[in-house]
Write a structure and sequence with these properties.
Elements (H helix, E strand, L loop, with lengths): L1 H20 L25 H22 L11 H25 L8 H19 L6
């Protein structure tokens, strides 16, 4: 339940932050599209692009710090057939979702479209594979 609540809260905050800082958002902060007065090539940056990158770096740093603080657990040996099954489910799900997104999703002329679609499909595959019960074999 904690994981589900964390995912929902994270998604909500992500969308809220994007809505406040991204160019073209409906409720963007009034200063977010202003250019920064820096020498070239940094002159191309806007306030929203700098906020976006800095908040991403801060988020990665915070998550990394929290992961490093997790208690150490002993590694449990998992039979090979279960590992294979897990990765077949995770990889298959990721490939199907990524393919469907590329075939039927909106075509965005953005560099980040493919990597973000691949990461999202991969995470969905891992979540699905983690929830599938292992049969007694």
């Amino acid at each position: 339940m904690v994981v589900l609540a964390s995912i929902l809260l994270g998604a909500f905050l992500h969308l809220l932050w994007n809505g406040l800082t991204h160019k073209g958002s409906l409720r963007g902060l009034p200063y977010s599209a202003l250019p920064l007065h820096l020498p070239p090539p940094a002159a191309l940056f806007t306030v929203y692009s700098v906020l976006d990158v800095l908040s991403s770096v801060g988020g990665v740093a915070m998550v990394s710090w929290l992961v490093l603080r997790l208690p150490r657990m002993p590694v449990v040996e998992v039979p090979d057939h279960r590992l294979r099954r897990y990765w077949v489910i995770a990889g298959g799900t990721a490939a199907i979702l990524f393919g469907l997104r590329q075939l039927f999703g909106p075509t965005l002329p953005d560099f980040w479209n493919m990597p973000i679609s691949a990461l999202s499909a991969g995470m969905a595959g891992v979540v699905l594979a983690s929830g599938v019960k292992n049969s007694k074999a």
